[in-house]
Write a structure and sequence with these properties.
Elements: H1 2-41, H2 46-55, H3 66-84, H4 89-92, H5 98-131, H6 134-163, H7 167-182, H8 197-207, H9 210-220, H10 231-260, E1 263-264, E2 267-272, E3 277-285, E4 288-293, E5 298-299, H11 301-306, H12 313-318, E6 324-326, E7 329-331, H13 333-339, E8 341-345, E9 360-361, E10 377-380, E11 386-389, E12 394-395, H14 397-409, E13 418-420, E14 433-436, E15 442-448, E16 451-457, E17 465-470, E18 478-484, E19 489-493, E20 499-502, E21 514-518, E22 522-528, E23 532-539, E24 544-551, E25 554-555, H15 558-566, E26 569-573, E27 582-586, H16 589-605, H17 611-624, H18 626-634
Antiparallel strand pairs: 1-25, 2-3, 3-4, 4-5, 6-7, 8-21, 9-10, 10-11, 11-12, 13-14, 14-15, 15-16, 17-18, 18-19, 19-20, 21-22, 22-23, 23-24, 26-27
């Protein structure tokens, strides 16, 4: 039976299928030629590797919607003639289970779609391998896989929409399809769905039931499913509810939250060296600002700027008021400029918040050159010190062996847990990389004049390092910041690689951004949550001086009230991850009060309905609230 249907369906759509294959080949040729042109124009080739890994340039995004387009075309070619010419009822009268018959038709379309998608993925991998290391080629498949999975969902929903006999439900299925398919395209970062393949696969499997639900409507019209004794239609309807609640409980709260989000009015905190006080500036909206200090005093703009000479030194320079004298020491323009430094650490820098291809440029500054050139070589520390040459896309076996041995001789254990360094050549100097090995030993290595220098850094074994971020500055005061697993922050100093623990009471590296500002006298660390800005002042050597927190003015939105009342539950995306991660969140008490009101109202208004049906629907409204109102209006 399947072979006969396969032959029949293929003969029906063979020319369209061949056209799709030609389209896919054309797109792949375009990808190959455009990538070849990029590698011809840009030197060194490692710049393109760097763009793919560290900037997130998805060089194959021309393929993004191609599988979904193919799914749409195959579904139309298969079912539109049957539905339009009213031939679809004919196979339903054959002596075979009708659900099985539809599944056979679906199997043909899914098989043809699988073949063309397999060609796409394999070709993408081989094209990537021509220009990029296997690490990036594998990453390209992981990134493109959700696009391919989305095409199967598009196919099944398109079939369901064409079989569905009623326009209202056709429209609703279109809306549902757009939302479900959008879940496969929300993240535009590479490997953005690495942790969600099982979830996407489940959505794909559930979508297979949608044509069966439409088939039931096609055969039985408006006949109530609640009266149906056959298992498959009821199961299909139950799956429909799951898909509906999944998509709507994500997109409705997501969009409402975007509108209802409190306006975060900027608040800035600085430390005044002359006054020995914290100064703050609050934005109250509409170009209104409030200035004050940690004593609770309100200041004028002139008083605020006067207290912060190291921030507004340019104004003082224009007004010919430099140098300034603080605590008996004079600071001129040159001294002020030379002492300035800033450093930022974001939750985006935390390894567990990103999916990162472990490939890094191996800088090699020359003592005979005044600039740092971007290197041809990039390295990986998974199994050994693997060094890849971008000029011919090969592994440099000789140098890899030499540097692997050099690391092992220093006691390094593969693979590396953390590799931290600045991966751009737009920097004043190169300090190489700080690496945490598999046994939590910390190493510092850098390459200079073709020689690799390695230093084993001793530190307190009680500190469980979670993340490192490097700052490369000509001041050479501190290398950067280290965060441990308990969210304690440490400054890694140049002198003897000393670690100085920072007293940051409220800091959470997974959700907050941290900023360090240095001037000729002080260091200031600033971080914030949704309600407060926290600031800690230090002297030049990171010795604690004082701390302060100030609230962030908030402007509430009417949409927030709607959000609190409307949704009994929602699926929430973690905003601090570069990849997709969702959590289930129960709504507020207000939402359940509203859902209870809707449930009771339904019992009162629809008393003519059968008691069993009325109670079932009211219970559904009790737990689903606004979602339930929408779905009852549709079905």
């Amino acid at each position: 039976m399947f072979q006969a249907i396969l032959r029949k369906e293929f003969l029906k759509i063979k020319y369209i299928y061949i056209a799709l294959i030609i389209l896919f080949i054309t797109a792949l040729l375009y990808l190959y030629i455009s990538t070849l042109q990029s590698f011809t124009k840009i030197e060194p080739h490692s710049m393109l590797w760097y763009q793919a890994v560290h900037i997130g340039n998805i060089y194959y995004d021309v393929l993004k919607f191609l599988p979904s387009f193919a799914a749409f075309v195959i579904a139309l070619a298969q079912f539109l003639p049957e539905i339009h010419k009213k031939k679809f009822r004919i196979p339903l009268h054959l002596p075979i289970n009708q659900n099985k018959m539809v599944f056979l038709y679906l199997s043909v379309g899914l098989l043809l779609l699988s073949l063309i998608n397999s060609i796409l993925l394999l070709s993408l991998y081989f094209i990537s391998c021509i220009f990029y290391p296997s690490l990036i080629a594998i990453s390209s498949i992981q990134t493109a896989l959700p696009w391919v999975l989305a095409s199967f969902v598009v196919y099944t929903f398109c079939v369901a929409i064409m079989i569905e006999p009623y326009f209202k439900r056709k429209f609703f299925l279109c809306v549902l399809m757009i939302m479900i398919v959008s879940l496969f395209f929300l993240n535009d970062k590479y490997q953005g769905y690495n942790n969600l393949y099982a979830f996407l696969g489940l959505l794909l499997v559930l979508s297979l039931f949608m044509p069966l639900l439409s088939l039931y409507r096609f055969k039985n019209g408006h006949y109530s499913l609640l009266k149906e004794k056959i298992f498959i239609p009821k199961l299909s309807f139950f799956v429909f509810l799951i898909l509906f609640l999944t998509s709507f409980s994500f997109f409705l709260p997501f969009n409402t939250k975007a509108l209802s989000k409190n306006i975060d009015l900027a608040t800035y905190v600085f430390y005044s060296a002359p006054k020995k006080q914290f100064m703050y500036k609050q934005h109250l909206g509409y170009h209104h600002f409030l200035y004050g200090n940690d004593k609770g005093e309100k200041l004028s703009l002139k008083e605020y700027e006067k207290a912060l000479p190291f921030i507004y030194w340019r104004n003082l320079d224009i007004q010919k008021k430099l140098p300034i004298v603080v605590d008996g020491i004079s600071y001129d323009k040159k001294t002020i400029k030379k002492a300035r430094q800033s450093f930022k650490f974001s939750y985006n820098n935390v390894n567990e918040n990103i999916n990162q291809v472990s490939l890094y440029p191996l800088f090699n500054p020359s003592s005979k050159k005044g600039v740092i050139s971007f290197p041809n070589l990039m390295f990986n520390l998974d199994k050994d010190f693997s060094i890849y040459d971008s000029q011919d896309n090969t592994k440099n076996l000789k140098l890899s062996k030499k540097y692997t041995l050099a690391l092992k001789n220093k006691g390094f254990s593969f693979p590396a847990k953390i590799i931290a360094g600045k991966t751009t050549n737009m920097k004043p100097l190169d300090e190489g990389y700080f690496v945490l090995d598999n046994k939590d030993k910390l190493f510092h290595f850098k390459r200079y004049d073709d020689e690799l220098y390695i230093k084993n850094i001793a530190y307190d074994s009680k500190i469980k390092i979670k993340q490192i971020k490097i700052s490369e500055s000509r001041k050479k005061e501190f290398y950067g910041l280290i965060i441990d697993e308990s969210n304690k922050a440490y400054v890694l100093m140049y002198k003897n690689y000393n670690l100085i623990k920072l007293p940051l009471k409220y800091y959470d590296s997974n959700t907050m951004k941290l900023e360090i500002y240095a001037n000729a006298i002080n260091k200031l660390i600033r971080y914030k949550d949704e309600k407060y800005v926290y600031a800690v002042a230090f002297d030049k050597n990171f010795s604690y001086l004082d701390e302060f927190k100030v609230d962030i003015p908030q402007v509430s939105s009417l949409y927030q009230t709607f959000f609190d009342y409307a949704y009994t539950f929602n699926i929430k995306k973690n905003p601090h991850k570069s990849y997709e991660e969702y959590s289930f969140e129960i709504g507020s008490k207000k939402a359940f009060i509203l859902s209870l009101s809707l449930s009771l109202l339904y019992l009162l208004l629809f008393r003519k309905e059968k008691k069993e049906t009325r109670v079932l629907k009211s219970l559904f409204l009790l737990f689903t609230g606004v979602y339930g109102v929408i779905i009852l209006a549709v079905v």
